[in-house]
Amino acid sequence: MRNIQFNFNVDEFNSIFPFHILIDDQLKILSLGKTLNKLLPEIELDTSFIKSFDFQRPHFENINATNFIQTLNQLVVLHANNKKVILRGQINPHGKFYLFTGSPWFNSIQEVVENNLTFQDFAFNDPLIDLLHVLKNQEIQNQELNELVIKINEQQKILEKDKEELQVLSSIAKVNLNAVIICDKEGKIEWVNESFEKVTGYNNQEVIGKKHRSFLQGKETSRETVAYLKKQLSTGEPFNCEILNYTKDKTKYWVRIHGQALKNSDGQIIKYFAIEEDISNEKSYQEALKYEKEKYSSIIANMNLGLLEVDNNDFILFSNQSFLDMSGYTANEIIGKNATELLANEKSKTLLADQNKARKQGISDSYEVLAKTKKGEDRYWVISGGPNYDEKGNIIGSIGIHLDVTQQKNLELQKERLLLKLKKQNQQLNDYAQIVSHDLKSPLRSIHSLISWIKEDNLKEFSEQTLSYFEMIESKVEKNGSFNSGDINLFQN
């Protein structure tokens, strides 16, 4: 091979080896590449190389001129003492000097930026930049992978949580006392719980794939309710209604249905679910209550006693026809009005207030009040009132039965007035009898005395017949003269 020498000026050499170091035989730095000088501006020329750099490879405890020679023509790794910069390259003899050529060892593009270096600060043939780009891409990919792993883990946690919730909901639906039905978007049954099987008599396998209306509804099922359910299902709207269904053995039963569509994130219907509460007993009770209400409503409406229902604030809720006849009002005129203010005479308001307090304490009682009719007439009513309770036992008002006793009351008052008048007249007669008694006794006593004197003076001259007459006269006089004021008592009976 021919002996060829290469000659470069400083700029050319710096463009090829921007991180070179020229070292003399005394191990002093004679020259630094332009980029290395930018990277390590604190290193000055003619300073000791071994004070500015340490050998990491090969490793020496103490570097000197002797062992420095051992580093030639091999891979060396230098560490700048005043800065965390590592250089990787080789040292070759260059005449009587030594030349280090290499490049810094950066772990990332970020370190290049932090050291204020750009692509122009590196040789075009330096593979470090490409390697750093690869590392950066790998770092980005690793970061994206880590983010993806984190996202997958989060989704896994959410999925596990959803799975747990689904298991809980599934358990709840399975053991729910009410019937639970899940259908596909076509309304075909996919799943039912045990309560559905118990209520209807159908097992799971018998109903899967069927529409509930094909086997649960019958001739007495309301067509309007069926149409309502069909409309709500077709539009994906929630539904809430009561419907008459039939069991497997065609026994009728009532259910209250609550249901709605399940939609995906795009708002498309994917399933339906419904909860059916068996309300057969409730319906039977309502029917019985309706029958009893109709039966007793007729009795209440036609009985001669007035019935009035009020709330806890004494506002009228209901009255029968007899009460309306008693008061002179129509139903529209009294419903919602305060009973005491509308119907009570001023003298009776205090009594009614006390009775209303007693009702709130659960006390029933009978009492008489003076009421006023629509025409302003005073009427005497006997009221038998008691508290009214709701189904939970709470007092919600009172109910009173009213009897108009005005005629009887007037007769009693008339009797009292007659008795007072008779008593007064008896007293007057008694006083008169005292006077008459005195006036009658005085002449009779005189007659009695005169007869006694006549008999004494003429005893021998009168015949027995005459004496008998005188005795008869004396007997009559004594009898009529012995009465007193007590004999007048017959006027008082």
Automatic annotation (TrEMBL):
Task: Return the EC number.
Answer: 4.6.1.2
Root EC class:
lyase
Q: Which Pfam families match?
A: HNOBA, PAS_9
Cite the PAS domain residue spans from the record: 165-210, 292-362
Question: Mind telling me which Gene3D superfamilies this protein's record contains?
Answer: 1.10.287.130, Haem NO binding associated domain, PAS domain
Identify the CDD domains for this entry: PAS
rRNA-binding as a keyword?
A: no
Q: Please name the GO terms that the record assigns under molecular function.
A: guanylate cyclase activity; nucleotide binding; phosphorelay sensor kinase activity
Q: Which residues form a coiled coil?
A: 128-165, 408-435
**PAC domain location:** 237-291, 365-417
Q: Which UniProt keywords apply?
A: cGMP biosynthesis, Coiled coil, Nucleotide-binding
- Protein's recorded name: guanylate cyclase
Q: State the organism of origin.
A: Flavobacterium columnare
